[in-house]
Amino acid sequence: MIWVTGDKHGQLSAMELPDYKKIKKNDTLLICGDFGFIWDHSRAETKTLKALNKRKYTIAFVDGCHENFELLESYPIVEFHGGKARQIMPNIFQLMRGEVYEIEGKKILAFGGGSVENTTGDLDQNWENVEPTKAQIDNAVQHIKQVEGAVDIIISHEPPYSILGCMDINKADGTTIHDVLEQIRTHCKFKKWYFGKFHVDKEIPPYYTAVFDGLIPIQTK
User: Fold this and answer.
1) What is the pLDDT of residue 86?
2) Name one Pfam family in it (predicted).
3) Can you give the residue ranges of every domain in the chain?
4) Sheet with 153-156: strands ordered across
């Protein structure tokens, strides 16, 4: 089984809600950005990651607006379900922008990231890494072509430009990431698109879902 949820911001309590008991051994939990458990390699943070690593399922997240990008980029890149991912712990992975994964028969396109305008915190951090690069966009284009322009699921932190109005966001406030995701929306067929960012659980029929605390099951058989 595959499950989808939203921003966690490093709060272990957000992953200890009763619904999480439904996630079984060998399931996969997809997190739509702002995972937030990787900031400083502190003793407390390491303890939390080890606690998450004891879970019997796989945790896979796209990056959001509020991450320590320099630390994320220090983790090794490995093969993961047919795509590339950064391995944080034996069962925790960062899904990389533009990669396509096949998990339990579902093709999943990942494209994390956001915009510099939405970042906060230590100004010394390399915040420009939140923005999509040409190489990452090209990577998405290449993989979309490889799957003949069709996937089952798209996972992102931000929504595509055309969905901003559904989230009560003025389209004039759209940034590069929204334009990039809009191009993906235009050129890639998909059945469902899940995104985080707005800290709300909201269905936008027929294809889009904003997710935060919700834990959404995806039937794979």
Assistant:
1) 99
2) Metallophos
3) 2-218
4) 100-103, 106-111, 153-156, 192-195, 208-210, 202-204
Q: What is the mean pLDDT of residues 154-166?
A: 97
Coil, strand or helix: which one is 182? Answer: helix
For residue 199, give the nearest of 122, 121, 93, 118 by alpha carbon: 118
Structure tokens at 193: 């698109």
CATH topology of domain 2-218: Purple Acid Phosphatase; chain A, domain 2 (3.60.21)
Question: Could you tell me if 72 and 57 are in contact, meaning their C-beta atoms sit under 8 angstroms apart?
Answer: no
Q: Are 218 and 3 a contacting pair, CB within 8 Å?
A: yes
Extract the tokens encoding 143: 């993989």
pTM above 0.90, yes or no: yes
Pair 96, 110: CB distance under 8 Å: yes
Q: Which helix (H) or strand (E) holds 105?
A: none
CA gap 138, 199 in Å, rounded: 29
Per cent of the chain over pLDDT 90 is 89
Q: CB within 8 A of 135, min separation 6: which ones?
A: none
d(CA 220, CA 104): 6
Determine the Cα–Cα distance for residues 33 and 45; give it in Å rounded to an integer. 18
Q: What does the DSSP assignment read for 11-48? A: -GGGG-SGGGGGPPTT-EEEE-S-----SS--HHHHHH
Per DSSP bridges, beta strands 58-61 and 92-95 are parallel
